Amino acid sequence: MKEEFELIAKTFQGLEEVLAKELTELGASNIEIGRRMVTFTGDKEMMYKANFCLRTAIRILKPIKRFEATNADEVYEAIKAITWEDYLDKDKSFAIDAVVFSNEFRHSKFVAYKVKDAIVDYFREKTGDRPSVRINNPDIALNIHIAETQCTLSLDSSGESLHRRGYRQEAVEAPLNEALAAGMILMTGWKGECDLIDPMCGSGTIPIEAALIARNIAPGVFRKEFAFEKWNDFDQALFDNIYNDDSQEREFTHKIFGYDNNPKANEIAIRNVKAAGLSKEIILKIQPFQQFEQPKEKSIIITNPPYGERISTNDLLGLYQMIGERLKHSFTGNDAWILSYREECFDQIGLKPSIKVPLFNGALECEYRKYQLFSGKYKEFRSENADQEFKPHREEPRPRRSTEKVAYKEQKERRRFNDRQEKKEHFPKRGERRRERTSNDKQKERNYFKSKPHRFENNKRTPSNE
């Protein structure tokens, strides 16, 4: 029987339940929702899959010790008591990330130094030598989390944040985080059942994440590497099986449209879409929102307009007034989801939202609102659609509890894209992207990325044929 252990998936505040559902669909056990995290249990294969497949996680941690400490000396002794040969040796490098919420420990850097000293002293006393500390790209990444006096030391299995997919070649000012964009899409329930439109797409993050969801392509396929690949117990064959398995990918018969009035943003979006190999699914165009017209097919809008915080605009309130006008006159019969920050901006839209979801974009406490667009009067719309639920509601922020059992159920019935499960159709593979890799292939691939800029041709992370 495979050994199971505790794992922690970190995420952004407001995406915890979306992440919990992802983990449920992935097959994780003992899922519990916390604040900006979801804990679960699984074996080594589950840890690899969590890094490779989760769209809303930003880091997967593997706790190796929990203890209580009231001062720095107690932290030092607890860390030094670990059998470090199981995780590290004197020829490897390591780095420590400290996260502290405590009255006893005021400075996270000081905590990181004490953990470092304990590890270094352990090896010096045992071998007379010590491993080196490397901030960038260490062999082993450690995370120490302290909440008052409760301490958790974990191995970071991800390395670079998982939101850095690897397809982004360039970004516009204040780009939307990839994990947040994926979470916004998943919240709507859309999985490719109709066209999707982002009329202010910037560098194309929402269209690209939407295409990955519609095709059910794992976001980790673009990554150069994960931190667990440097661990002593890394299973190359197991990870290659996960990486090369494209059996869950599916066909997408609709289109994703990304518009922006900035030619520079359009150029960047085109490069990013090409790097992701999704030019067939995504259509990009230079077009201001003022010229938006009623789509011919059933569609959904998901967009993230400027807030006036990091991106300035001459007439911010006028922009939102125009958005409301275009939605009312050119998007009837469809749903629009808008993420924004200022209440006065939402007021200018002039439409009544059916859902309000608190969601953090960086440090900004935003709201993600759903608008159901219809022609005529609201009462007439309700009477014609009496079987649907239109009661406006606000999903309140989660209370600050450490953990709670998850009983994940949909709040409203949503269409599912289950054709692939019921009919068990086999869709064509994406070229040679998932060709089986050998250890030699992988080494050649690493050397290739070291010698050249990070690019993907036809969305294929294939080894070099050199």
Reconstruct the topology from this structure.
Layout: E1 5-10, H1 16-26, E2 29-33, E3 37-42, H2 44-53, E4 59-68, H3 72-80, E5 93-101, H4 108-127, E6 132-133, E7 140-147, E8 150-156, H5 178-188, E9 195-198, H6 205-215, H7 236-244, E10 256-260, H8 263-276, E11 282-286, E12 299-303, H9 316-330, E13 335-340, H10 343-349, E14 355-361, E15 364-372, H11 378-384, E16 393-394, E17 404-405, H12 419-422, H13 439-451
Structural notes for this entry:
Helix content is 30%, strand content 21%. The protein has 466 residues and is α/β, with parallel strands linked by helices. The protein folds into 2 domains: 5-156, 2-Layer Sandwich (VC0802-like); 178-219 and 248-397, 3-Layer(aba) Sandwich (Rossmann fold). Helix 5 (178-188) crosses helix 6 (205-215) and helix 9 (316-330) packs parallel to helix 10 (343-349). The longest helix is centred in the N-terminal third of the chain and has 20 residues, at 108-127. The model is unreliable at 397-436 and 452-466 (pLDDT under 50).
Summed up, the helix count is 13
- Domain count: 2
| Helix coverage percent | 25-40%
Could you say which structural class the secondary elements and strand pairing correspond to? alpha/beta
* Largest sheet descriptor: 9 strands, mixed
Calculate Rg over CA atoms: 24 Å
Average predicted confidence as pLDDT: 84
CATH class descriptor name of the largest domain? Alpha Beta
What is the number of strand segments? Answer: 17
N-to-C terminal Cα separation, in Å?
41 Å
Which short descriptors sum up this protein?
13 helices; eight-stranded mixed β-sheet; 2 domains; VC0802-like; Rossmann fold
